[in-house]
């Protein structure tokens, strides 16, 4: 009897997870918003991986004209698809390498937020009681901390680095994910397949990570996609304010350099418009993915 109950519990867990995964893949095929978001991510991921091949120049290299003068403020033409900066650096190459910096920060921060938020939500929702109360009070404190000022203060104490954004998100943004995961776990822990696992004598750790965790992963992935956009936007904001690393090319540092050089008043739109569009596209892609997956996670919203 115990073996039969264990088998039913495992099958119930797998069936629930596979059904949710199947709905997710079917949604990607049918929903234009989710499809558009994933395609945007795929394009930027391709650019980041093959940045060395796609870029035409070293993004830090100061270029010179034939007369040995610095090739500064050149308009878009020929080898310089988007022109050059006031210091003679190729804007197109900076834009390409900026995708690598953006996705490195975005994916790292999203992974940290999802990992911490999911683990905390699983523990709080499963054990409930004083464990849940303590964790949720800590989450309330974290939610009250303004994120961007926190990252700026963190950067002032630590060495300027893109990883400050990752650390800041890991410390402050996880409560949003953990609260949603917790509410889902509170429902899952009362399901039949979980009761069957308890009957078989499964340990609490096995029930939590083998039977319950796979069923909340799709929800974690959705919040991860949102976190990617927020991390990239935050990194751009920090770099624009001058708190980013000076030796790393990013879309935020491009905007900061364009602002300092008064690119807007001088009409150098080819300098600051492309990185701005890239930031917008990545943030919008996260929104598209999350919006599309609402039909899978919350079927009642279809009405």
Task: Provide a descriptive summary of the structure in words.
With 303 residues, the protein is mostly helical. Helix content is 74%, strand content 0%. It contains twelve helices and no strands. It has helices spanning 2-30, 32-49, 51-54, 91-127, 129-143, 147-157, 163-172, 174-188, 192-199, 204-240, 251-260, 269-297. Helix 4 (91-127) runs parallel beside helix 12 (269-297). The two termini are 43 Å apart.
Q: Count of helical segments?
A: 12
Give the beta-strand count: 0
- Percent range for β-strand residues: under 5%
Low confidence ranges:
1-6
Name the structural class.
mainly alpha
Distance between the termini: 43 Å
Average pLDDT, all residues: 81
Radius of gyration: 23 Å
Order of helices and strands: HHHHHHHHHHHH
The residue fraction in helices comes out at over 70%
- Shape type: elongated
Topology, pairings included?
Elements: H1 2-30, H2 32-49, H3 51-54, H4 91-127, H5 129-143, H6 147-157, H7 163-172, H8 174-188, H9 192-199, H10 204-240, H11 251-260, H12 269-297
Question: Short summary of the structure?
Answer:
This protein is mostly helical and 303 residues long. Helix content is 74%, strand content 0%.
Please describe the structure with a list of short key phrases separated by commas or semicolons.
single chain; 303 residues; mainly alpha; 12 helices; disordered N terminus
